[in-house]
Amino acid sequence: MWNHDQLSIHLKHPNLKIDFESYGFVRPENVRYQYSLDGGNHWSMYDDRDFIFLDGISSGTYKFMVRAVMGSMPNKGQYVSDQIVLHVSLPFYKEPKFHLYALFAGIGFLIFTIIYFWFFRNLQIKSREKENRIKFLQIHTLQSQLNPHFIFNVLGTIQSLIINQNTELANKYLVSFSKLIRRFLDSTVRANSTMDSKGMELEISLKEEIEMLEMYVDFEKLQYENKFDYKLEIDPPSIWIRIQFLLWSFSPLLKTVSNTA
Known about the structure:
Helix content is 45%, strand content 18%. By secondary structure, the protein is of the alpha+beta class. The strands form three sheets. Strands 1-6-5-3 form a four-stranded mixed β-sheet, with no helix packed on it. Strands 2-4 form a two-stranded antiparallel ribbon. A two-stranded antiparallel ribbon has the order 7-8. Helix 2 packs antiparallel against helix 3, helix 2 crosses helix 4 and helix 3 packs antiparallel against helix 4. It starts with a strand and ends with a helix.
């Protein structure tokens, strides 16, 4: 060995054997050794073997020191020492604590997976609850806006036309009624969103609202056998204004007017 020498060792397994030998002693068979791997802070017991076997060594830098003495009761002035710096490297999966690290990593991954799926499941539940709430509000809005009495009255009136064999007029109002319902459902969808999936505006134009109101008033006239008349006066440029408001916000007022008339 040479003082202050360094040696790099690449191991395939965490096992290392170090051999050493003494020269110059009168009776080398009585030489005993002790060693340290941390620069002399901690020493092994004296042993007459001229090698050491390190089982389970980890990657790192070790300051290996060895002392040789004569006799069974050495004192400070009787030994000689030497040292070498060892740079040991191992594949990460061959490290002695790799299994422990792998266990901790597995437990951590399991905990993360449980937390992730718990969070993801709660997120799905909240999203589903939100969708159900939106659907409920949409249905509630549809029910509150679409007056069932108006529908029954219109269907009853059309039925009367069919019974009286006025099939041409009944067919006309049946087509108009289906168009009114379709317009209303379309407007309900637009009222629940301002943009569609393609980024197009879904607001309702004043013209569309007026067309629905005209069809509504026509059915009111049909129910009351044309006992009243109406006239719409609208500034033409305002027809194309796009607005957002409660669907059929004018229908209660028109219903009140028609009943009063």
